[in-house]
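Retro notes, item 3 of 5
We never archived the inputs for the 5-O-phosphono-beta-D-ribofuranose complex last cycle. Fixing that now. Sequence and ligand:
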Amino acid sequence: MAKRVLVVMGSDSDFPVMEACFRMLQDLGLSYEAIVCSAHRTPDAAAELAKTAQDKGFGVIIAAAGLAAHLPGVIAAYTVLPVIGVPIRGGALNGQDALYSIVQMPVGIPVAAVAIDGAANAAILAAQILAGADESLNERLKNYKENLAAAVAARNERLQSKLSELR
Ligand code: RP5
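Structure as it came back at the time:
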């Protein structure tokens, strides 16, 4: 049984993007908890969440935030669990501020980052981190990739038939 995933969001306004993360975690059969907690508005709570996550049985943390997105980095400062940051699009800089805030961590405190609004990939990466200790999750991930490959094959067939109509 894989360890649980802790999903932290800077605001509930991040939910429309993060819904894809929750769906993917569920599709991959992972159990998770989610909470709104802000590095800026509730810094003590963010630190406490990070400090206690490992003892609560979480194996990886996904942290999503927009604007000056310090949440993933602050959480990573207080735990040795792997932290995956999701930069959320929004504001005057359209998520580039969040992306740079999450990616540009100093040596010693890494945060893995997915694309702007890359919520589903955060879930897949979390699953891949946990799969090393869970053979059944490993198999589910392999099936997921096989399905991706099958979808590409189907797309190619569609392209070939459109091309043959043109000729
Ligand atoms: C960030 O600021 C949140 O993660 C959210 O993406 C953004 C705006 O938050 P709200 O003002 O909608 O609460 O901290």
